[in-house]
Amino acid sequence: MLNVFDKKLEMIDGFETDYVKILYYDLPKNFSGDYKSYNYARFCTILNGRKHVTLNNNKKFVYTKDNYLLLPSNSKVHMDIDTHTTALVFELNDELVNNVLNKIDLKDNMKEVVRSTTNNYFLGQNKYNISEDINNIFVASKSRDNNNEFLIDLYAQKLVFDLIKNKTTYQILNGNNSHPINIAVKYINENIRDMINIKELAKSLHMSESNFSHLFKKVMGIKPVEYIKNKKLELALDYLRNESVTDVAFNLGYSNISYFIRLFKDKYNMTPKQYKLTYYEKL
Predict the structure, then answer these.
(1) Any idea where the HTH araC/xylS-type domain is (predicted)?
(2) Contact 159, 43 (CB under 8 A)
(3) What is the distance between the alpha carbons of residues 188 and 195, in angstroms, rounded to a whole number?
(4) What helix, strand, coil percent values describe the chain, rounded to 5?
(5) Is the pLDDT of residue 176 over 70?
(6) Cα–Cα distance, 225 to 55 (Å, whole number)
(7) Which of the listed residues 129, 148, 176 is the one where a domain comes to its end?
(8) 1 pLDDT above the threshold of 60
(9) What's this model's pTM, rounded to 2 decimal places?
């Protein structure tokens, strides 16, 4: 049991399995303290009492046992306690999140894993499923059963499964960029002007090309080759404003101009030249 926020004490105290670290805090009235979520997302809930929170030096709110707080990694939190408070924190590691994401089918509106904006936190309601997950993990952590670590990891997967049904919590849990598809999409977006070798990309992620392509489609909804093609052709629309068709093709990694034109026409129902004449030459 912890009564201060201290990284060294957190490393010693608590209960840890392959997937989750469980920290239990007993905080006295008039306590103030700071802590960080460090490398992993943290799921924070209150058993009794309440917390006055200042998140990342600006966002202020109060939450109670009716709420849970999900924090992405490297969040900075200041807490003021005005009544005796007991709290439970689950540190959810990347292996846990990735294992769940790899085994389920995501809704279409959650398949885009890399976004231009990130969410700093999520304050949710402890509804039935979440409350049940919290209780199951807590009870299992207190059990003397030899299989309690197995049960905790099982319940932790259920908690993540319930959390990722919400778009915001999904983004937070998937925001550490350690998921292989996050890494792949980031690499593709940063190198979209070059020739991207999918086999080499898969190898860099310690995956076979077939397994990588299967996982990519499961998460993103399309194959990696289609994702790359679509990204290049989207950029082509903008590049055509100031560049010739030939320059656009070369700048996007297409050495065969005819192939680029064919791909463009298949997607936009007109050639790059026709698009340029229609939308830019008149300006």
Answers:
(1) 182-278
(2) yes
(3) 10
(4) 45, 20, 35
(5) no
(6) 40
(7) 176
(8) no
(9) 0.59
